[in-house]
Design goal:
The structure is a single chain. The protein is globular. The strands form 9 sheets. The chain has an 8-stranded mixed beta sheet with strand order 32-33-35-34-36-37-38-39, with helices on both faces. Strands 3, 4, 5, 6 and 7 form a 5-stranded antiparallel beta sheet that branches. With 685 residues, it is of the alpha+beta class. It is built from 11 helices and 39 strands. Helix 6 crosses helix 7. The two termini are 20 Å apart. Strand 6 (94-98) and strand 7 form a beta hairpin. Helix content is 17%, strand content 33%.
Length: 685
């Protein structure tokens, strides 16, 4: 495709001088989504995409495989339990309650709230007795959660709407008369460009005006802080935590609510100013359990007295494992010998071990259905001998498993409700070496037949924020492999697959390691005959969009096609848009001269070069995305369309009324089909 066929995009002579370095920004004008020029350019890009999109392949098969539906881990409150499930024909999952007699009722159906499908359920939290339910919804993908409270018995709203509750935890006090929550300050009280920030912790009494809510915490602290809040089951202990943006460290305080008023709790420091993450669980046995990576990058569990919770009192219960990352735990105490179930990921594969609660001695393991991913382990708040956990792998839709500590058996408790015929695939985990000799793991999903390659292949990666890429059911992956392709997922540095050291090896000054790991994954796939450079497509979204943006600018000859979704690409100005200011603890800030150097070295938008035959590239962005502004993709698209000499296209798929996260199933199917169609066309599938 020649550049003359692309919509006209004016190039400005805009140059910023930062730390004595000129930084060109020829498409700065595309940062204004409301300007007539930007709107005209987007309209022309939409027409170009519609013209070049071609017949949509794979759509019916993706939809069929998504008819598996899904099911979530139960939350027990009193005699009731709550869970989420999506049946084959539902656009969104529905939140249910099950009464003690087994009667099941739908409590929140997003499609009943809004038949357009644009409303999503963001979060839910039943009170401690299971009589009231706090839930948060948002519309059109903006993730600006509105908080309501429902009477579980009648289904009637008894509270709300309460706005500005994005990412708010809800910590109920016993009796359901009040809860702690997190809310942003009103826009009238903060500068215009800071309305996404400035969170505070409040106490709200059900049935009273939010004007009367008592602000408890956050005043005078950093505007980019996120806060956590929880209350122990007996109502005695309040826990407040603070993260600076997405930093891999937090501060924690606790208060004894029997010794100070609930609206003026006396908070005592557990951890402050320490470069580590910790979380607290107040046990039914009176002990405080600490899940921490302090002095243990792969995490450990310690115990202490909640009245004296400082670090110097912590005692190891479950020590750090040299190869596995400790992810979560649950306590089962209705036994002669109470135990702790401990969840681990060992090189991205989940397992659960059983330990004596008093000594930490390993006494067994929980049988699991296979080599896959385990969701959070749930117990009854009042104690018991049972636990529930989610399970999925590359060919198994989500299911809920029940473990009985008295018998040592795991049984299927709830399966995804749809019956689908999953294609046979072969999954293997390989180890390859990155540029600096570091061993990196990669999951490869390929057709079950033994036909030799090379095959059209999609390489996926993320590599950031300590997030692990683990096996999971994916209609899109299965559809691609069933059609004869290979799908590879690289466990890059920057993720959490090997613990916090692995994360930090791919953040801040070390970010290039992530890109090197990705290039090495591609080279390994080519060298081992899985694929060729002409058959290799790469895909990533959000931080993974940054990854593939860097990959296509650093090694354009290595990839035939790129799908770059909701990406960060202008790493010099990213802090000024969306939630960017909360991510400088992961990437660095252009305001600092040394950190500017890190960012400038790889910022994809600033490394687009004239007269380079770039891969076929599809940007998929979402107009209501309030995390990563679509302007990143708009500017990069314009730059690539101007610079590339390849006949392969650079296209923009700009979708309205959806955002960075949850969406309806039909929207998911359309996006997935467009992505696979594009990659198939340009890798030869």
């Amino acid at each position: 495709m020649t550049r003359e066929l692309y919509p006209t995009a004016r190039r400005e002579n805009t140059v910023d001088l930062l730390h004595e370095t000129p930084v060109p920004d020829p498409y700065r004008w595309l940062e204004d989504p409301d300007s007539p020029e930007t709107k005209g350019w987007l309209l022309a890009q939409a027409e170009l995409y519609a013209e070049r999109r071609g017949p949509q392949r794979f759509k019916s098969r993706i939809a069929e495989l998504l008819r598996s539906g899904s099911v979530g881990t139960p939350s027990w409150r009193g005699g009731r339990h709550f869970f989420i499930r999506r049946t084959p024909d539902q656009e969104h999952a529905v939140y249910y309650v099950v009464e003690p007699d087994g009667t099941e009722r739908a409590l929140i159906d997003p499609m009943e709230l809004d038949p357009s499908g644009l409303t999503t359920l963001d979060a839910v939290q039943p009170d401690k007795e299971g009589r009231l339910l706090a839930y948060q919804i948002s519309v059109g993908g903006d993730e600006e959660s509105i908080l309501y409270v429902m009477d579980v018995t009648t289904g009637e709203r008894v509270e709300g709407p309460i706005d500005r509750c994005r990412y708010s935890p809800i910590a109920w006090l016993p009796g359901g008369e009040a809860f702690y929550y997190v809310r942003r300050l009103p826009s009238t009280e903060v500068p215009e460009n800071e309305t996404q920030f400035h969170r505070r912790v409040y106490l709200h009494r059900v049935g009273t005006s939010t004007e009367d809510d008592k602000m408890l915490f956050g005043q005078g602290l950093k505007m980019t802080n996120y806060y956590g809040v929880s209350v122990s089951r007996d109502g005695r202990w309040l826990q407040v935590s603070a993260h600076e943006g997405t930093a891999p460290r937090n501060d924690i305080w606790v208060a004894d609510l029997t010794a100070s008023p609930i609206d003026r709790p006396e908070l005592k420091v557990v951890q402050e100013g320490v470069d580590a993450q910790s979380g607290l669980v107040f046990g039914r046995d009176g002990r405080l359990y600490v899940h921490t990576d302090r002095d243990a990058p792969r995490a450990r569990v310690c115990v202490t007295d909640p009245a004296e919770p400082g670090f110097e009192t912590w005692r190891d219960l479950i020590p750090e494992d040299p190869e596995a990352v400790l992810s979560d735990f649950a306590i089962l105490d209705d036994l002669e010998r109470p135990v702790m179930l401990v969840g681990w990921t060992r090189h991205a594969i989940s397992e659960i071990t059983v330990h004596d609660l008093e000594t930490g001695e390993r006494v067994g393991e929980v049988p699991t259905p296979g080599l896959g991913s385990i969701g959070g382990i749930a117990e009854r708040p009042e104690g018991g001998h049972e636990a529930w956990f989610g399970y999925t792998d590359n060919t198994t839709p989500p299911s809920i498993q029940r473990y009985d500590a008295r018998t040592g058996e795991t049984t299927l408790w709830a399966a995804s409700p749809g019956a689908v015929e999953v294609p046979p695939v072969r999954t293997s985990q390989v180890v390859y070496q990155s540029k600096d000799g570091t061993d990196v793991r990669m999951l490869i999903i390929s057709p079950a037949d033994d036909t030799p390659g090379p095959r059209p292949t999609i390489l996926y990666g993320y590599g950031g924020f300590g997030l692990s890429q683990t096996p999971g059911y994916s209609a899109s992956i299965l559809t691609w492999v069933e059609a004869g392709g290979v799908y590879a997922i690289a466990n890059l540095r920057g993720g959490g697959e090997e613990g916090e050291e692995w994360h930090r090896a791919g953040m801040l000054a070390n970010k290039q390691n992530v890109f090197d790991d990705f290039h090495a994954a591609a080279e390994h796939l080519i060298a081992t005959g899985v694929t060729t450079a002409g058959q290799l497509g790469i895909s990533g979204g959000s931080n993974g969009g940054l990854l593939v943006g860097a990959a296509l600018t650093q090694r354009p000859e290595l990839y035939a096609a790129v799908v770059c979704s909701a990406p960060l690409l202008d790493m010099i100005r990213y802090e000024q848009f969306g939630l960017g200011a909360t991510w400088n603890v992961e990437y660095g800030s252009a305001e600092d001269s040394e950190q500017f150097g890190w960012l400038r070295a790889y910022s994809p938008y600033h490394h687009v070069q004239e007269s380079v035959p770039y891969p076929a590239t599809l940007f998929t962005v979402f107009q209501s995305d309030t995390r990563v502004h679509p302007l990143h993709a708009w500017k990069m698209c314009a730059a690539l369309q101007h610079a590339s000499t390849a006949e392969r296209p650079v296209l923009l798929r700009n979708e309205a009324e959806v955002g960075h996260g949850a969406r309806s199933v039909s929207r998911t199917v359309d996006l997935s089909a467009d992505v696979l169609t594009f990659l198939a066309r340009h890798t030869g599938l």
